């Protein structure tokens, strides 16, 4: 039989399915309309911005770092452009294999691999890390021809810092290096505007002027808006805001004088600081030995770092800023001033010097060659009588000594415009209570005071502190914070902005007291321990030699330099100011482990004063004699400073670049878009070095238009100490 279909029932099912399908279609269409409204109306502004950002990339333009120049315009730090080969680790499957393949195209040395490994550890995986710097044009061409083989590897044109004079004045200049992880984290706490200014910046000042004046040298970061394709390729530049180069920092030092002093030291260790006591201007700031800051620019390799860091001579230690030493007999004029200021001793008071001072059963000795006899204050300074100042220290006491020396700046930061200065130690009973932990060590013993009178014991100061203290005495109590930067020049407008000269509250000394001390120090150069060194000088100066113990001796132990290890021998010190009537220079010099003050330190001071006051440059034979510690007064025929050429400056590729002017360098700044080839030259600035003529003041400031050192050790036991001076 044939089954008859229920047409009505089938038609109803069909209609139900049709309405269900229509409802589903309408629902889906409604969802599309709703989503379209959300995207086109509700989120229009947000999505339009995202689309524009995807189309437009904002690329930071890193500014040219500012120049550092000396007082005469000689460029001490500049920039050069070069190609670098860089790897982005996140885009490379096998970094080691990639480096090995690259080594067949460009020269990659083991030191390059070690530096890359260290920089990679300090960087994030998506950041490009240089494997080779300063590529030649030939190397660039070879890589570009095979670039398709190396995804994640590219050639970049970058600016690099360069120090044309190598290790000369390196402790003043410091250096720049890549921003490490710790520095990057610290930068996140900077104000938003300052942090944003470092977008794209990979290098930052680490020490010296580079660090202390980072904000002036860095410049203002610019930007470019670049239209990109869907694949991220740049199509065209829409607009740009150029970067503003960093300012030019003008130092107060004369690089020719700086080079002379470093030559006079030779291979010896030490420090020299010379300032203008009338305004705090630093005229010379030397720490020996030095180091080459160029080694740090693109990452120092492990061999060079080990050599610098483990050297017994500690070339990374800025001895002028962070090296603390007992001042030895250079402390005696300040002790005499304290006696006058407190009324504890009159200049005519006589103390008998028989070569030994007895206190508590201990013998505090004087040098065997000391003349002795009846000592008034002037003769005690001129002949450097230890017994006189032993007894004076006993009369004053440690706390009164502290209170008299603190206003001179001993044991305090001077405020120089370099970071990393240390305060040294100006002892007192309160200081000792805080410095030691065990109760028996906290107590101050009267016998510990005696050695303080001759600049030994716990006394520990920097040459910067001694120079500023002497400047205070030379100017009857006037004080200034020392400054290495004279002014800062805007590279675009050429407007010069003088740095602040911070005048500190004067010390209320009586003029007759400071005049007496200055006259006694003049006697040192005429009748005392500095006579032979300053014989025939064309100016009157005051000075004081010092011989400070590097290590303590037993009470009956005799000092014989030839029998001691070099690093245990006495330090040679000298302090000087000149001219006598209106001092324009105050200076402190130390030559480590070099013996008597008159033998090593004083001859260096004499040549510096001749340079500054007379415009005289020592002969080559005289320089050699000073280096060997065999000089007194100058020998040979001195030259005019103006006739002596500047030190030789080298660019990053070994070319001599002496003779290029500052205007030429600023008129042709390095370009990242077209790096120089291997044979081209960078351009440091040199200008004629103008000495200070006799009788004239240093040039005034232009009108308006800082490796951590080991901390100073605290001796556990203070032994009787003697300053060993040679009359």
Output the keywords.
727 residues; alpha+beta; five-stranded antiparallel beta sheet; 25 helices; 18% strand; elongated
Low-confidence spans: pLDDT under 50, at least 5 residues? 676-724
Helix run count: 25
End-to-end gap: 147 Å
Radius of gyration: 35 Å
Helix proportion: 25-40%
Largest sheet: 7 strands, mixed
Number of strands: 25
The best one-word shape is elongated
SS strand fraction: 15-25%
Report mean pLDDT, rounded to a whole number.
84
Estimated structural class:
alpha+beta
Structure notes:
By secondary structure, this protein is of the alpha+beta class. The chain is built from 25 helices and 25 strands. The strands form eight sheets. Strands 2, 3, 4, 5, 10, 18 and 19 form a seven-stranded mixed beta sheet that branches. Strands 12-11-23-22-21 form a five-stranded antiparallel beta sheet, with helices on both faces. Helix 14 (332-342) crosses helix 16 (386-396). It is elongated.
């Amino acid at each position: 039989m044939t089954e008859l279909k229920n047409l009505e029932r089938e038609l109803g099912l069909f209609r139900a399915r049709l309405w269900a399908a229509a409802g589903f279609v309408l629902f889906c269409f409604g969802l599309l309309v709703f989503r379209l409204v959300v995207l086109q109306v509700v989120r229009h502004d947000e999505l339009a911005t995202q689309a524009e950002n995807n189309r437009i990339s904002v690329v930071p333009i890193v500014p040219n770092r500012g120049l550092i120049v000396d007082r005469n315009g000689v460029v001490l730090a500049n920039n050069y452009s070069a190609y670098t080969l860089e790897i982005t680790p996140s885009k490379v499957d096998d970094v080691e294999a990639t480096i090995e393949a690259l080594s067949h195209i460009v020269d990659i040395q083991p030191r390059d691999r070690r530096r890359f490994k260290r920089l990679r550890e300090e960087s994030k995986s998506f950041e490009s890390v240089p494997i080779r710097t300063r590529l030649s044009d030939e190397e660039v061409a070879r890589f570009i021809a095979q670039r398709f083989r190396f995804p994640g590897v590219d050639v970049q044109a970058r600016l690099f810092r360069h120090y044309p004079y190598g290790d000369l004045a390196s402790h003043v200049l410091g250096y720049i290096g890549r921003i490490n992880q710790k520095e990057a984290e610290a930068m996140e706490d900077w104000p938003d505007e300052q942090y944003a200014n470092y977008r794209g910046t990979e290098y930052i000042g680490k020490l010296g002027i580079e660090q202390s004046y980072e904000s002036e040298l860095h410049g203002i970061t610019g930007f470019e808006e670049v239209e990109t394709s869907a694949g991220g390729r740049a199509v065209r530049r829409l607009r740009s805001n150029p970067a503003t180069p960093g300012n030019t920092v003008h130092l107060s030092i004369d690089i020719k004088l700086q080079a002379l002093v470093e030559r006079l030291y030779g291979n010896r260790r030490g420090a020299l600081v010379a300032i203008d006591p009338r305004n705090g201007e630093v005229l010379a700031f030397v720490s020996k030995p030095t180091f080459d800051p160029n080694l740090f620019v693109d990452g120092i390799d492990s061999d060079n770092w080990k050599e610098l860091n483990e050297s017994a001579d500690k070339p990374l230690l800025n001895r002028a800023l962070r090296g603390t030493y007992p001042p030895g007999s250079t402390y005696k004029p300040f002790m005499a001033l304290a006696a006058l200021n407190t009324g504890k001793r009159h200049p005519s008071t006589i103390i008998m010097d028989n070569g030994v001072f007895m206190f508590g059963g201990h013998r505090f000795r004087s040098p065997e060659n000391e003349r002795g006899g009846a000592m008034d204050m002037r003769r005690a300074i001129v002949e450097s009588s230890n017994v006189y100042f032993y007894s004076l220290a006993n009369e004053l006491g440690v706390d009164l000594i502290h209170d008299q020396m603190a206003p001179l700046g001993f044991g305090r930061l001077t405020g120089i415009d370099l970071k990393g200065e240390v305060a040294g130690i100006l002892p007192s009973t309160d200081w000792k209570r805080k410095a030691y932990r065990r109760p028996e060590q906290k107590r101050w013993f009267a016998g510990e005071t005696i050695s303080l009178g001759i600049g030994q014991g716990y006394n520990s100061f920097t040459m910067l502190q001694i120079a500023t203290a002497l400047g205070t005495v030379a100017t009857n109590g006037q004080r200034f914070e020392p400054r290495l930067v004279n002014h800062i020049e805007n590279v675009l407008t050429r407007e010069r902005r003088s740095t602040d000269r911070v005048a500190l509250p004067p010390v209320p000394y009586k003029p007759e007291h400071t005049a007496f001390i200055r006259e006694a120090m003049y006697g040192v150069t005429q009748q005392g321990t500095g006579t032979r060194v300053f014989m025939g000088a064309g100016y009157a100066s005051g000075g004081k030699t010092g011989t400070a113990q590097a290590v303590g001796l037993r009470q009956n132990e005799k000092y014989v330099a030839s029998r001691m290890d070099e690093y245990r021998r006495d330090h040679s010190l000298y302090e000087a100011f000149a001219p006598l009537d209106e001092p324009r220079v105050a200076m402190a010099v130390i030559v480590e482990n070099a013996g008597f003050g008159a033998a090593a330190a004083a001859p260096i001071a004499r040549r510096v004063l001749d340079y500054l006051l007379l415009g005289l440059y020592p002969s080559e034979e005289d320089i050699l004699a000073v280096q060997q510690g065999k000089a007194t007064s100058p020998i040979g025929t001195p030259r005019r400073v103006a006739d002596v050429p500047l030190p030789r400056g080298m660019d990053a590729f070994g070319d001599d670049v002496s003779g290029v002017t500052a205007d030429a360098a600023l008129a042709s700044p390095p370009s990242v878009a077209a790096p120089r080839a291997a044979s081209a030259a960078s351009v440091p600035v040199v200008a004629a070095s103008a000495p200070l003529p006799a009788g004239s003041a240093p040039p005034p400031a232009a009108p308006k238009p800082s490796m951590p050192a080991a901390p100073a050790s605290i001796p556990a036991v203070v032994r009787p100490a003697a300053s060993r001076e040679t009359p």
